[in-house]
Amino acid sequence: MPVDLYYVPGSAPCRAVLLTARALNLNLNLKLVDLHHGEHLKPEYLKINPQHTVPTLVDDGYPIYESRAIITYLVNKYGKGSALYPEEPKARALVDQRLYFDIGTLYQRFSDYFYPQVFGNAPADKDKLAKVEDALQLLDTFLEGQKYVAGPNLTVADLSIIAGVSSFEASDIDFKKYANVKRWYETVKSTAPGYQEANEKGLDAFKALVNSILKK
Ligand SMILES: N[C@@H](CCC(=O)N[C@@H](CS)C(=O)NCC(=O)O)C(=O)O
């Protein structure tokens, strides 16, 4: 039974899933969703994901959405014993903490700051920018003396966070001024399996979309 992934190449949460699949050497059956034409709002799609988001994974008929739930599921199911999502409770708790920091703080604050400018024609809000900078400072602190965001090994937390932080490249946020973040970014780029194919390609599509909108 194939594992289907409903996705959009430019989407950061979709890129996190593609990176995880590559790290697990797992082939996904990719199904492009045309958000622009509202394919995600059609009854067939709402049946598998009422939240109408990408990514959505369908494994043997079982749908899972929310990228961080998908990537941890993939390691649980297809990467038994993998360091990508360690089983030891404390090590796992640290990975989970980073994933929740990502969804609730880091990527959330970036979305609050940047997407109204891109998709809502809103002016840049300096208070929102200060919150993003505060989150980047926290990430920098987490990375002090650590190779990866949850310790010495690459984990799904790195894959989720790099998919989001790489999207910052489309904005005016200079995340490379945080020395630990800059070093970590280069490390993950060069050590995450299939990084170029799984993240960089979609990131280029995202940047092109942002540029085309902001130039109008
Ligand atoms: N927290 C979700 C966010 C997913 C999300 O918002 N995806 C966007 C594309 S990047 C989407 O599907 N937007 C369409 C919609 O919400 O209707 C995840 O990580 O999967």
DSSP strand (E) fraction? 5-15%
In what order do the strands lie side by side in the largest sheet?
Answer: 2-1-3-4
Rg from Cα: 17 Å
Major β-sheet annotation: 4 strands, mixed
Unique ligands = glutathione
Helical stretch tally? 8
Shape: globular
Order of helices and strands: EHEHEEHHHHHH
Low-confidence stretches: none
Q: Which range best describes the helical content: under 10%, 10-25%, 25-40%, 40-55%, 55-70% or over 70%?
A: 55-70%
- Multimeric state: single chain
| Count of individual beta strands | 4
Mean pLDDT value:
97
**Given the helix and strand composition, which structural class is it?**
alpha+beta
How far apart the termini lie comes to: 45 Å
Structure in a nutshell:
The protein is 58% helix and 8% strand. The relative contact order is 0.15. Homodimer.
Describe the structure.
With 216 residues, the chain is α+β, with helices and mostly antiparallel strands. Helices cover 58% and strands 8% of the residues. It has eight helices and four strands, in the order E-H-E-H-E-E-H-H-H-H-H-H. Strands 2-1-3-4 form a four-stranded mixed beta sheet, with helices on one face. The longest helix is centred in the middle third of the chain and has 31 residues. The chain is globular. It starts with a strand and ends with a helix. 37% of the residues are buried. The mean pLDDT is 97. Bound molecules: glutathione. Glutathione binds next to loops. This is Glutathione S-transferase. InterPro entries: Glutathione-S-Trfase_C-like, Glutathione-S-Trfase_C_sf, Glutathione_S-Trfase, Glutathione_S-Trfase_N, GST_C, Thioredoxin-like_sf. GO terms for molecular function: glutathione transferase activity. Homodimer.
